[in-house]
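Obj.: predict assembly geometry.
Materials: sequence records (below).
Method: joint structure prediction, all chains together.
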Amino acid sequence: MAIDAATVRKVARLARIAEPEERIEALANELNGIMTWIEQLAEVDTDGCEPLTSVVAAGLPLRDDVVTMGGDPARVTSNAPKSVNNFFVVPKVVE
Amino acid sequence: MSLTKLTLASALEGLAKREFTSVELTQAHIEAVEAARGLNAYILETPDKALDMAAKSDARRALGEAGPLEGAPLGVKDLFCTDGVRTTACSKILENFVPTYESTVTSQLWRDGAVMLGKLNLDQFAMGSSNETSYFGPVANPWRRAGENANSSAAMTYAKTSNWALPEGRHGILTPGGSSGGSAAAVAADLCLGATATDTGGSIRQPAAFTGTVGIKPTYGRCSRWGVVAFASSLDQAGPIAKTVEDAALLLTSMSGHDPKDSTSLDIPVPDFTQFVGKSVKGLKIGIPKEYRVDNMPAEIEKLWQDGIAWLKEAGCEIVDISLPHTKYALPAYYIVAPAEASSNLARYDGMRYGLREDGANLTEIYEHTRAAGFGDEVKRRILIGTYVLSAGYYDAYYLKALKVRRRIAEDFDNAWAKCDAILTPTAPSAAFGLGENSNDPIAMYLNDVFTVTTNLAGLPGLSLPAGLDANGLPLGLQIIGKPLDEATVFSVAGAVEKAAGFTAKAEKWW
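Observations (raw structure tokens):
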């Protein structure tokens, strides 16, 4: 299935990456090239095959529900683009 | 002999015998690093921190409290978070990020007495095979093709080019591979005694092969991923790049171990890996997979592989032909799984809590502009592919299909282990290529990892070591793949190949 300009615009929107209009055609070509190469996976017989999501056989470990780190807001916000009084300052979310 | 020419093991011995101090050893490396800026291997030098750590190391040694890596100056791939030291993943979006915590792997190296020289260049977010996707520009491989004149001034001019565009014509500057290009180049050029690296599809082993160094990606779960900037979490593993197999074993022993902060970290004992280097390999069965031959593979690589087979036979191994029939599907499966995980992992870079934030008319625009400005082209390409294969209507056809193929690849290895104890292959399908030679063709670039990516998908340990030179005088690597958690056998086989190959060539200094 070919990736057209509309698909690129939609995927870029989903990924929250602004792609300038003049890049859309070139991106569609690039992504098509890669996806066409990937299509060869269709040759593999995967009937009755369980998807492999993790190579670690063990189940996920549980731990006690206690605070292990924290209580240090200055450190947590030290890399914030904008912060005031140990709070993150973010743009208005609700109009 | 200059202190920077020492291997890690011999430097540790010299320190133990009080032949020199860590401060002297560290100072020698700091000077080498400063003189090698044209290679662009270090993107951040931390000489003050290094000398401070070295002085404290010497004090510990004087008190008889020396750790296993006491006083050894190392380089750190800039994907490992270092407390108070800028960590960028070689991206613009993290250009000014200063972690307030230390990755588990590096904290274990410092616990064992090692000294940090600085942060090493890599492909942006570890996505690349030539170090050309770094926001800070590519690394120059210390190795040159015989007769080509990559001289210091050309490299320095190149290093100072703000847009990193290659000038007309080749300058004879080769890629050190990627993504751990800075780590590999720094070890090859004696700018550290060893370096941390990470490997998602071959990012430790291909650069090791391109630079005549040793690199091992351990079994998935050996090393904690905590504090390592995430790319594809089910594939990412840390490991060392080093000058010798023994040095790699020393470093991996320190880097490995259970960490409750990484839920995929394995809670099993870590042996002292150095004890397996030099151990007899007599009677071991070595598998040779017939599928590890690709079109246009140089005859020299085939020949090197045959040499490796002969060396192991001579050492008493039994050589067995094996088949890994799904090998050719590993890369296409990887280019669904890795971008899918990357698109999810990199969703965190939204410009709110850390990293770059760009302006916009509303929240969505702020996200879109921040990510457009903060990510490079290859990172964006992979996020878009990942978003596409995970989007409604395509999930089953692509993502689920790729996970099933991943199972087939893992089954190939399970079947092989019934016949052999370890597998010998070439590491990469070519020697180091010139910067700019593959950068316009993503798939040609991706094919660099054709022999390494299978072990990431199956979670297996894989080690690359230098075993010979091609006709241009460039190093070529052989890869040894082991059973899950059987780094021990990998190190023994690697030790045997290293001994037989007698690879002692070094890049001639031009930088």
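Conclusions so far: Strands of chain A lie at 83-84, 87-88.
To do: check interface contacts against the pulldown list.
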